């Protein structure tokens, strides 16, 4: 075989440059009815290069194999891009075969890694996750071994077909090689997520995001959303420092979102507003979870604030704060020189340790509430019903968590009233047929909120006087809250009935506990209504008994249901024993009065 003269070689290099240009630039302008025009032209050029290389001996065997392998690689990617996956796979596997005979070295390591990245994506797209994992983990170990044993800036694949004067600088080579490895990490993060290895997926995702910033290779909005999504993983694991760091970085980077070509200005603005609203929703979850987790730490067995525990945690916190400074330094931090300070200044505005008293809880609540306003501004009721209501439910939950920290019962009651004012109009206006599940959630929450307010009103009245002498105004208020709670529990139960109004014989798994709890609460609420009229009292007690009996009988007929409502079942059995006596006494009293 002959080797190339300089003109022939230059012609090959030019063809390669043209093929790259057609693939990366020209193809963006291809018409919708001929979307792959440029890619097909590039394919022809790559085939011509392949034939030329096959017919000539290009010096050293290793370099020839790498060049042929690179053309197979580009042909593989080209076929995948034009949705011809089997042909794409064949070319990529040909590339692997050509490389089998070579030792991993500076001239070919980049190709070794990138062909495996492509095969990883290809198999992942077919839901063959384990096969994808094999290719990508091999790519990862090739990179790691190369960096340990050699580490010099490797040849980029485009340089196989570049004239002497067009070779890349060391700097550019390093950047491209590191970017290829960043892609390996990114795809592995997806693979581990699909395999259910969430912790591993989070670590890889974090590393990917960090590397993208360092290499300055990212699309700001996409990066920000990935960081915000990662924060949700950390939050569920109670790792609030990392969660806060991801969200602060997401906020800073999303502000860098510059021009997006090929979109009209107003479309682009809408797109950015939506993404920022999505990041705001991640912040809401951060604040809400932080408050809820703090509440779990602080509550006693009846759900009130345990002051001894509070003191103990405050002492522990002072020790923790000294430790935190040290820990912070070793955490995985995002940022380049220019974004680092902006990220830190957002972090300073919200705590990542559990709030332990009202002042701290309020500061977290207010950050959450600001993000509620931002998210609601985009996800409006008109057009985004489900999203809008989810945001309102989160806002209500923020109030509920804050109320736990409030010692003043009157103010606590006002917070619950805010929740009612927020949810009640929506619950009553929603179309019952289309939004059944959401309405059920709202009915249940409203019933519980009224119940909470009723308990608070009673506790307040009891502080001021003994129960015997409740004034009429208080009784009226108490009965109003009690009836409102019962009304919403009953609405929830009615929503389970058939169109003919028949209650189901057997309750579905997902409504089993709520339905039995609602029955139990309705029973309790009816027995608590205050009335001076014996007839009304009797009526209330009978309704109460009927609902307690339902819980007991349902659990007798379906023993597995008992596990879902242990406490409620125990109390219901007790009441089924006690209430008939009370009813008989009341009947006897009424008879003797007649």
Q: If you compute it from the alpha carbons, what radius of gyration comes out, rounded to the nearest whole angstrom?
A: 33 Å
Low-confidence stretches: none
Q: What is the strand tally?
A: 0
Order of helices and strands: HHHHHHHHHHHHHHHHHHHHH
Q: Which structural category do the helix and sheet elements fall into?
A: mainly alpha
Number of helices: 21
Q: What is the overall shape?
A: elongated
Query: How does CATH name the architecture of the domain at 7-237?
Result: Alpha Horseshoe
CATH superfamily placement of the domain at 7-237: Tetratricopeptide repeat domain
Mean pLDDT score:
90
In this structure, how is the largest beta sheet organized?
none
CATH class of the domain at 7-237 equals Mainly Alpha
Beta fraction = under 5%
Distance between the termini: 123 Å
- Helix residue percentage: over 70%
Keywords: Coiled coil, Cytoplasm, Cytoskeleton
Organism: Oreochromis niloticus
Subcellular location: Cytoplasm, Cytoskeleton
Family: Belongs to the KIF-binding protein family.
Question: How does this structure look, described?
Answer:
- Activator of KIF1B plus-end-directed microtubule motor activity. Required for organization of axonal microtubules, and axonal outgrowth and maintenance during peripheral and central nervous system development.
- InterPro entries: KBP, TPR-like_helical_dom_sf.
- Keywords: Coiled coil, Cytoplasm, Cytoskeleton.
- Residues 288-315 form a coiled coil.
- It is found in: Cytoplasm, Cytoskeleton.
- The protein is mostly helical and 594 residues long.
- Among the domains are: 7-237, Serine Threonine Protein Phosphatase 5, Tetratricopeptide repeat; 408-503; 513-593, Methane Monooxygenase Hydroxylase, Chain G, domain 1 (Up-down Bundle), CATH 1.20.58.
- It is 75% helix and 0% strand.
- The chain contains 21 helices and no strands.
- The protein has helices at 6-24, 37-55, 61-81, 85-100, 109-125, 129-149, 170-194, 198-215, 220-236, 240-254, 265-298, 307-330, 337-347, 358-378, 385-405, 409-429, 436-464, 472-494, 509-528, 534-557, 566-593.
- Helix 2 (37-55) packs antiparallel against helix 3 and helix 7 (170-194) runs antiparallel to helix 8.
- It is elongated and about 125 Å long.
